[in-house]
Amino acid sequence: MTDNEQAITDDQRQRAKLIWDHHQMHHEVRPVDVAIGLGSHDLGVPAFCAELYRAGLFPSLVFSGGSNPTAPERFPRGEAVHFREHALALGVPADAVLLEPSATNTGQNITLSREVLAAAGITPKTVLLVSMPYMERRAYSTARKVWPEVDVICASAPLEFDDYLKTIGDEQLVVHQLVGDLQRVIEYPRLGFAIEQDVPEDVQAAYGSLIRDGFTRRLLTP
């Protein structure tokens, strides 16, 4: 990497990978009633949705998300709109895609997508949530809280940690995101936004040490 400001040390990489592994649910992907592509800055989400649709794993797909709060310039017309366009370019038919263009957080991604589906006459029993790799656990714990009656499966593009770092191109940014998402996994149950998730001691230690190293950009403000 040419920009030293974006690099992380080998030790930080090892600690970040512990958190990365914990964020992934390792669910077995299987046919479901509907999929929801959760908005983010990562076009890997709609690309993976398109791949799973072409594999016949679901008949209907919702893309959810308004303006990205941390990078609004990334998708100026909103995450869901850009995700839909990307999926259509990859061969997903327009009549298979529903749009939820307003959500600004994961809870809204799920609750507003549920409303969009209901308006379309779809009441799923099984739902596949497709997200960025480090967002799987937060998506799962949120869905179990706000939509407990459905069977939820989480998935993301099958990338190894080092490959994801190369894809994003900014190692420090990824670590900030990993730390921020783990804080939300820990704190959101207390706020009523998600169900409790066990965080192993080694993951907690990695999390604390990366915060001490200054990876605090995505932490919740008091």
Explain what you see:
There is one protein chain. The protein is of the alpha/beta class and 222 residues long. 46% of the residues lie in helices and 11% in strands. The chain is built from 8 helices and 5 strands. Strands 3-2-1-4-5 form a 5-stranded parallel beta sheet, with helices on both faces. Helix 3 links the parallel strand 2 and strand 3. Helix 1 crosses helix 7 and helix 4 packs across helix 5. The protein is globular, with a radius of gyration of 17 Å.
Q: Classify the beta-strand content into a percent band.
A: 5-15%
The DSSP helix count reads 8
* Largest sheet: spatial strand order: 3-2-1-4-5
Helix-residue proportion: 40-55%
Q: Report how far the terminal alpha carbons are from each other.
A: 34 Å
The overall strand count is: 5
**SSE order:** HEHEHEHEHEHHH
Nearest-integer average pLDDT: 92
Q: Note the overall shape.
A: globular
| C-alpha-based Rg, rounded | 17 Å
> Spans with pLDDT under 50 lasting ≥5 residues?
none
Largest sheet: 5 strands, parallel
Class from helix and strand fractions: alpha/beta
